[in-house]
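Reopening: structure tokens for the coenzyme A complex, inputs below.
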Amino acid sequence: MLEKHRRQTRHSTRGPRWEELCMAGEVPRYQHLYGTNSCPSMDASKVQVTLCKFFFSNSRLRTFERKLIRIISGSPRSDQSEGVGHNISFSLLLTASGSLTMPVLERQPSRDQVDQSGLPKLPVPALQQTLDMYLRCMKHLVSEEQFKRTRDIVQKFGAPGGLGELLQEKLLERKETKPNWVYDYWLEDMYLNNRLALPVNSSPAMVFPNQNFRAESDTLRFAAHLISGVLEYKCLLDGHALPVDYARGQLAGTPLCMDQYYRLFTSYRLPGPKTDTLVAQESSVMPEPEHVIVACKNQFFVLDVVINFRRLSEKDLYTQLQKIKRMADSVEECLPPIGLLTSDGRTEWAESRSILVKDSTNRDSLDMIERCVCVVCLDESSGIEPSGTNRAMMILHGGGLNRNGGNRWYDKPLQFLVGADGCCGVVCEHSPFEGIVLVQCTEYLLKYMMGSPSKLVRADSVSELPAPRRLRWKCSPKIQELLTASADKLHRLVRNLDMNVHKFNSYGKDFIKKQKMSPDAYIQVALQFAFYRLVCRFHLKTVTQHRETHHTKSDIYPIPRCHRRPVPTYESASIRRFQQGRVDNIRSSTSEALAFVKAMTDKNTSLTDAEKMEKLWNAIRAQTHYTILAITGMAIDNHLLGLREIAKELNLEEPEIFTDETYIISNQFILSTSQVPTTVEMFCCYGPVDPNGYGVCYNPQSDYIIFSVSSFHDSPGTSSDMFVKALVACLGEMQDLCRICNTHAKPRKSTESMEHASHRVKNGGREA
Ligand code: COA
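Re-run output (same inputs, fresh job):
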């Protein structure tokens, strides 16, 4: 066994001595764990240690500590362990002279750790393929006349020796020099250049199951347990011990890029006057963040989670949270709700921030927030019925200044909310990672909390810990003025959000799979159907709604609901199969889906059910085909963006293809949709991306589907309630059709294209 183990590890004959490492600052804050004080029987000068980066994570250090102490106290001749954590093996050996040597740690190549640089690079699709697809996607979404103009423009752009070819060549060069040619362009276009306020418009939320807190102590216990889970998860990340994700669903089994996880606790979105910056604390020069910011009653507190080189226990965290609660209750010390500024438009917040930083107190406070692990908001009870819809809204925007809207700091990627009324969840700054990564993290936390009973006993922690610090702010009259403006804007946003969270109970993924259809494709077709179906009629929104949202319009306003048309639709498709992969767009508004919904909504149709079923199959196949293209890096949106941005970099005049009305329309996503499945009871939600559109997030389960539908009250053409009603009806009709036509025997037609696509991923986008 030992021999086998030796083969797996490279032993060092002379590693740096422990005290040398300490003196060199190599083991910055953990030296106490292994210094002579904690192991008095050990002569530290005899310990030769060769450090591996893995030891710099708390969990690895603790494992090391346990082993070291066991060896020293129990004096076995050797101690070895394989597979500590997920994929590390190491052994501690007593040398003949009695000193301890520590072999170099090596990651064992396992399914859990795949060399991420070995992932293929995102391919650049062929120019003509993208242009053809673009025309196909837009033909039925614009007028015939407009389409003819677009076709000419596109032909000119893609002509041999034309501008398209030049830009394509430059993109291919870019691909050679970057791990991911679209990453920066995409990040800026999708998030950093967007000037809209983060709540509702950009930051998605995960809504946890409603908690039953009977007393303040329950809330604080929950928060302490949650923070403990966060610190455990962060240890896994720090130790690079998180198992690699593998794709599920379509083209299952390929490893996925893990980069997004490493931004969960280490990034921060700094507002800028024109564009924001995503700051990453990856540099070793910058100390690792060791504090959580706790927001309570619009005040911000620094909760150190490592004190005297020790990570705080859950009990200690609870004690500290109690202190925070008491400090927040002190009316005399109450400071203005500065967090409100982060809920404003990005340019406005950048301006306010530039005023704030002129004062050194403010600078210090901002610095603490920008370097924290995460924000935990202890919210007041919002006093509303805890339905899924209400909880989703509270977590998305906090309910405005009158509720918990000022108890937020939107720039930080992870903001956990623990409401006194049991409304809990997390709202995220989206630019560092996608919802799927957020789900993995929050599922870990919820499972941690469910699986490991709170370690709190009734008594408070007895340890004497320094009290958490309140962050101080110096607010000039100008800042006070800006705070009022931010509060007003947040108030409007709160009033404007029209949300409906619906659990569709009639069936779920299992029924759809039995039809031999992709559940995701099926749901997307249903969304197209629902949007189209919303009938052309005038609907009177209530007087109250209009008084609140339409200040300039008459009290009773006719709302045209004249859809009967397909609209540009966005569905996120993960491209994490590639290095630094984020997402591309599945354009779900296919002509095949349109043909199906027309057939289903035409009252005078002479089509039989079998013919309608055939159209449903065509729509599902087209959707599945696009999905496979998108997840293998062959969709059109990132490619067109790349061509547009590289033209800018070359200082070329903006190509006509990108000033054309069709391109503008193609980017107005009236339907912004996303599948965010969970294995723990919770759901994701977000706001619409277009003022006249819907945001639809869905969570398909075996026998039900949760839909979170959002829109804006002040859009005359939308209503989340109506959309949900239409969707439920459409899903019912689609099920009836499947049952009538009994499609069970239909074979999976997409197998061939899946195999082909799978091969393409492995080949980094190249054809076989
Ligand atoms: N017959 C029977 N079963 C089928 C089927 C068919 N024709 N087609 C698919 N299935 C099965 C799959 O095998 C899968 O099974 P599983 O539940 O055992 O894993 C299941 O149905 C779901 O597959 P499907 O509905 O096709 O979707 P998917 O899981 O492949 O997801 C995307 C498709 C586009 C959503 C996914 O690839 C993706 O990109 N997800 C990320 C989205 C994202 O980023 N969201 C967050 C944005 S912030």
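The two ends are 44 Å apart (CA to CA). DSSP finds 25 helices and 25 strands in the chain. Marking as resolved unless the reporter disagrees.
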